[in-house]
Amino acid sequence: MSLLVGRSVRRSVLTIATEDHNIPTVGSIEPIVDPVSRAQVEALRANAPEFGVPPLGDADQGVVHIIGPQLGLTQPGMTVVCGDSHTSTHGAFGALAFGIGTSEVEHVLAT
């Protein structure tokens, strides 16, 4: 449950967490140099298990609009939302998909 507002992830089984654009594409075993990206990744790695969200942290898993279709996570008829402007590309697989802002992510997770 969130320490800030008391909300939890309502449907953690339907939620995935990926480090997306914050991880380097080369030298991925090296520490993340950018302090903002590093902080975001560290927060995700700590928060995902706390909220029961399965993390996708494999070396072959990264950018969400690639791994969703690649891993079969994006399916026809699904609603897919993500804090990424390219999320609408999941629509090519028959999903209703759109990007949302950071403040909207909290509300999606809570409902």
TrEMBL record:
Iron-sulfur recorded as keyword: yes
SUPFAM superfamilies with a match to the protein in the record: Aconitase iron-sulfur domain
Transmembrane segment boundaries: none
EC number: 4.2.1.33
Keywords: 4Fe-4S, Amino-acid biosynthesis, Branched-chain amino acid biosynthesis, Iron, Iron-sulfur, Leucine biosynthesis, Lyase, Metal-binding
Listed InterPro entries: Acnase/IPM_dHydase_lsu_aba_1/3, Acoase/IPM_deHydtase_lsu_aba, Aconitase_4Fe-4S_dom, IPM_dehydratase_rel_enz
Involved pathway(s): Amino-acid biosynthesis; L-leucine biosynthesis; L-leucine from 3-methyl-2-oxobutanoate: step 2/4
GO molecular function annotations of the record: 3-isopropylmalate dehydratase activity; 4 iron, 4 sulfur cluster binding; metal ion binding
Keyword Iron: yes
Reaction(s) catalysed (UniProt annotation): (2R,3S)-3-isopropylmalate = (2S)-2-isopropylmalate
Domain Aconitase/3-isopropylmalate dehydratase large subunit alpha/beta/alpha, chain residue ranges per copy: 6-111
Cofactor: [4Fe-4S] cluster
Protein's GO biological process: L-leucine biosynthetic process
Function recorded in the entry: Catalyzes the isomerization between 2-isopropylmalate and 3-isopropylmalate, via the formation of 2-isopropylmaleate.
Listed name of the protein: 3-isopropylmalate dehydratase
Species name: Cutibacterium acnes (strain DSM 16379 / KPA171202) (Propionibacterium acnes)
Lineage: Bacteria, Bacillati, Actinomycetota, Actinomycetes, Propionibacteriales
